[in-house]
Amino acid sequence: MARNTLPGIYLIIEFDWPQPFEDEFGQLAADLHRSIQEHDWIEEVFTASGGVGGDLSSMWVFWLQDYAGLDRLFKDRSHPVSLAYNDFFSQMSGVHERIREEVIIRVKED
User: Fold this and answer.
1) Which of 69, 71, 78, 103 sits CB 3.0–4.6 Å from 41 for a disulfide?
2) Per-residue b or e along 5-40, where b marks 16 or more CB atoms closer than 10 Å to that residue's CB
3) Whole-Å CA distances, 13 to 44, 47, 65, 95, 109
4) Which pairs from 43-50 meet CB under 8 Å and 24+ separation?
5) 53-92 residue pLDDT tens
6) Is the entire prediction scored with pTM above 0.90?
7) CA 80, 86, 91, 97 torsion-angle sign
8) Residue 19: what pLDDT?
């Protein structure tokens, strides 16, 4: 297997959904997903829930081009992605964010 590095910033967020679950939480997640689709400085890598290991039940991983994108996401309340991100994660419980600068992936060679 070959190893490739993917430059960029990876934001790894583990969280729990509030209980009881309300339809509003699902709508906030959908709003965040939709807002990301319209921009090239941020992408969804994957989402997972229902016991992915660790203490928190769900995970959402984002790729950002650079630290400027991360700053925009966290601080620019006039940007639609930032608004959707903060609206969603402010409702979740036990949010834990980690940042990684590079990820090494293994690619199966033919």
Assistant:
1) 69
2) eeebbbbebbbebeeeeeeeeeebbebbeebbeeee
3) 11, 9, 17, 7, 31
4) 45/10, 49/17
5) 667 889 999 999 999 999 999 999 999 999 999 999 999 9
6) no
7) positive
8) 87
